[in-house]
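Here is the promised in-class demo. Please do not try to memorize the tokens; focus on the logic of going from shape to residues.
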């Protein structure tokens, strides 16, 4: 667990159409160890719906970071987190094909473009 203290991010609404490809935006570049594709990551994150801007998930709201093996996450995270360094904050705009699939896929977020802000606290 890292000891730097960041605050819960705020995600500004976007104008225009949702992207069809994964978008990575480094909001803050870390200087710690780098996440690799097979890593387990310790993250704080916020997820909002691209269209409505409504929050659907947040480790910040639960008050603790989460450890995830990257291989167990949606494709957008598997592609968007490697290369991040501990201490960094990255925004991912994830189209449905790299999130929960097309509309009607059985998940409440199927068919939705999602925005995540991810703080990388640790890798193992």
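The designed amino acids, position by position:
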């Amino acid at each position: 667990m890292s000891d730097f203290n960041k605050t819960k991010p705020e995600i500004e609404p976007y104008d225009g159409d949702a992207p069809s490809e994964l978008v990575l935006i480094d909001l803050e570049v870390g200087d710690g160890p780098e996440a690799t594709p097979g890593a387990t990551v310790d993250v704080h994150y916020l997820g909002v719906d691209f269209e409505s801007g409504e929050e659907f998930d947040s480790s910040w709201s639960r008050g603790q970071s989460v450890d995830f093996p990257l291989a167990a996450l949606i494709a957008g995270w598997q592609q968007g987190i490697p290369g991040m360094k501990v201490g960094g904050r990255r925004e991912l705009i994830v189209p449905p094909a790299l999130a929960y699939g097309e509309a009607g896929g059985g998940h409440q977020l199927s068919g939705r473009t999602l925005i995540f802000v991810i703080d990388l606290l640790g890798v193992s």
